[in-house]
Amino acid sequence: MPPPSPPPATPGIRIERRSNPGGVNIKGKEYAIAWLSSEPVNSMTLTLWRSLLATLDYLENDATIRGVVFASDLRKPIFTAGNDINELHAPSTSATRYAEFWKTQTTFLCRLLRSPLSTVCAIRGACPAGGCAVSLCCDYRAQTTHGTFGLNEVALGIPVPKFWARLFVESATSRADATLALLRGALLSPAEAKGIGLIHELAASDAALLPTAERALATLLKLPDDARAATKANVVRAFSEEWEAYIAEEARGGWAMLNEPAIETAMGNVIERLSSGKGKGEKKPNPRAKM
């Protein structure tokens, strides 16, 4: 077998190849850690979504790779702070860029949801909005006991995207509790998220998180890839295809919404709050927000 091709240029993501997840020898094949490393908070810009999509393309086309763990390599305990506010603030972007942003983001999420790879999300600390959506598209989610988890768009004055909301509710063991969390714009504690099935396992410490995720991956990789991938496709294909078919319509509707005066004002207020140091986003002069 020829040596693997070098990874593509993926700004904000570092791809690390490993073998024997959880110390288990799995037929000599490898897996990858996709480290999200865009300091300071992994703001999900168009560039980062492009990098995520390129990373998934690369890993799926490498016959030696059977699974991937998505994890944060930030100094702060943050998986990602969510979508970059500047991608959602109409005066800061354009209709063309927003359409590309939404298409790239949603294409990645749909592809990740139905990926033939085994996928695990190792969530260290905060995981709101866009980061939560990424994790929900993975087969398994492990999180530290500190942090947050949820889709908090309502608290910021915008609706939760249609398929994000559906995925959140359908991933939970309690539809009522998950729906109420969305309506409240709530960020759940890891224990609360685990209590309704959104998180599969809690790691006792930051140091224990990646080994926990790798053990979960090892359990998946012990089984035949083709059978597992076909079963996943049977479960999620129809949902992911419906989601993907909605991209253009959702982007048009989203852009119209972002240009509504009340929404534009709300987004501007978020930028002002973060720029003044009252939020947990980027430092000046590039504010970021959890969306």
From TrEMBL:
Pfam families membership: ECH_1
GO-annotated cellular components: mitochondrion
Superkingdom in the source lineage: Eukaryota
Gene Ontology BP, a term: fatty acid beta-oxidation
Alphabetized SUPFAM superfamilies for the sequence: ClpP/crotonase
Chain intervals for the UniProt region annotation (Disordered): 1-20
Regions of compositional bias (Pro residues) in chain numbering: 1-10
UniProt-recorded name of the protein: Predicted protein
